[in-house]
Write a structure and sequence with these properties.
By secondary structure, this protein is of the alpha/beta class. The protein is built from 15 helices and 18 strands. It has helices spanning about 5-10, 30-35, 50-60, 85-90, 105-110, 150-155, 165-180, 190-200, 210-215, 220-225, 255-265, 280-295, 300-305, 315-330, 330-340, and strands at about 40-45, 70-75, 100, 125-130, 135-140, 155-160, 185, 205-210, 230-235, 275, 315, 355-360, 365-370, 375-380, 385-390, 395, 405-410, 415-424. The protein is globular.
Length: about 425
């Protein structure tokens, strides 16, 4: 199955998507295995974003649909735009059904795009299903003055991104190569929330790879108030909820363009996937897929999704697996041309701010520092991202105490503290 035909499959209405259409019923042995177990639902991005919302929603409802009703807990594992979580799931997570993950299609297809840090084979993952076939957007902050995709050709703009492999970096760089836009990409933001905070402070103008589901849920207030303006949508098809926003395929002129766009932008069809490690026992795969099918069809899950303004457009595990293999069958010449136009070149990183002052308050995930000017700065702490030294020695963030004097390098108010050099 080639890319075009596989993506068409995803565009078809999911007639007959109902309980158990793609899976076998759980056996007593499966119930006995899962009973009393705790399953890790690994979310490859920080708390508070779209993937975290979907991951927690799914974890909450799938518990009662799995045989043996095990406990499902969410574990955030951000880093390298999802590749750290993908590597963990493939190489280290138990291959018995007690670990699942959610990471982006960008991370999932990094081996196809030549990223040697991606130590996995995409086709070997156990694809449990897709909760939403994502439509993505590039959106600008109102104060930037950007109001349309055409504006990107007329004036320079700055987009925030996580890493060079992330869609929020590859998409704007592809726009430069394909359409002559004048975008500068600043890397080093941990995730979408960090980029949006930078947009609000006027440090960057826009962000790509902001899903429509996030725009209508966790970013709804800014979107409805006109502060967050979608200027182009990407993905498989134009979404009726933002029908006035141009779709990237509107700009395709040739069949080759459409093939390149399919590889660059069509992968969004695998938007909010639930993924398990490779080499699961067949009965375990069937149990996970059956639980997925029942969950996304559950009226309680659907009602909860609506309450959170979360979009649902599911694909079964078998359908997802077929689409993955279709994307992997993209002609080598198209892959090579796509890689050429998205070469990162010189990576421009965000310049960290510096505050020197006294720790006023500290908790597991937050710190407040009172600067020399008397102003308080509230920052987020991350066990992985926040590099801490106390008295010149490496330490964990939990060792930070109120009253310490610190030099803090950070991404700005409400964002992450990246480096903390403190004295007792």
């Amino acid at each position: 199955m080639h890319l075009k035909s596989s993506l068409r499959l995803a565009a078809l209405p999911l007639l007959g998507f109902a309980l158990g259409t793609a899976s076998l019923p759980a056996t007593a042995d499966e119930a006995a295995f899962f009973h009393g177990k705790t399953i890790a639902m690994i979310v490859a991005y920080p708390p508070g974003g779209g993937y975290d919302t979907y991951g927690r929603l799914y974890a909450k409802h799938v518990e009662k649909r799995l045989p043996g009703t095990p406990k499902v807990i969410v574990r955030n594992m951000p880093g390298a735009s999802g590749i750290i979580a993908a590597n963990y799931l493939y190489n280290k997570a138990p291959k018995d059904g007690t670990a699942m993950a959610m990471f982006s299609s960008s991370a999932a297809f990094q081996p196809l795009l030549g990223n040697k840090r991606a130590r996995f084979k995409t086709e070997n993952f156990t694809w449990v299903g897709v909760i939403d076939q994502t439509t993505s957007t590039c959106a600008a902050w109102h104060a930037s003055g950007l109001k349309s995709f055409e504006d990107l050709k007329m004036r320079p703009s700055v987009f925030g991104a996580a890493a060079a492999t992330a869609l929020n970096s590859t998409h704007p760089r592809a726009f430069n190569a394909l359409f002559g836009t004048r975008i500068k990409v600043i890397h080093g933001y941990p995730g979408g929330t960090s980029i949006l905070l930078a947009m609000q402070r006027g440090e960057v103008d826009a962000i790509c790879s902001l899903s429509l589901s996030s725009l209508l849920s966790v970013r709804r207030e800014d979107y409805e108030a006109g502060r967050l303006i979608p200027i182009v949508q990407t993905g498989l098809r134009k979404h009726p909820l933002i029908k006035n926003v141009p779709h990237i395929y509107d700009y395709a002129k040739t069949e080759e363009d459409r093939q390149i766009f399919g590889l660059l932008f069509g992968r969004h069809v695998i938007g909010r996937p639930v993924i398990a490690p490779p080499d699961l026992p067949p009965a375990r795969t069937a149990s996970l897929r059956a639980a997925f099918d029942k969950t996304v069809a559950d009226p309680a899950f659907i009602a909860d999704s609506k309450a959170q303004h979360v979009l649902l457009d599911p694909l079964s595990g078998k359908e997802t697996d077929a689409i993955v293999r279709g994307i992997l069958a993209t002609p080598p010449a198209i892959i090579a041309k796509t890689l050429k136009m998205t070469e990162a070149g010189k990576i421009v990183k965000v310049k960290l701010k510096v505050t020197e002052g006294t720790v006023a308050k500290v908790s597991k995930r937050r710190i407040e520092v009172k600067g020399g000017d008397g102003k308080s700065l509230k920052l987020r702490l991350s066990g992985r991202r926040s590099k801490v030294k106390i008295g010149g020695q490496k330490a964990k963030s939990k060792a930070l105490k109120a009253g310490m004097t610190c030099r803090v390098e950070h991404l700005g108010e409400g964002n992450y503290a990246m480096k903390l050099d403190c004295k007792q």
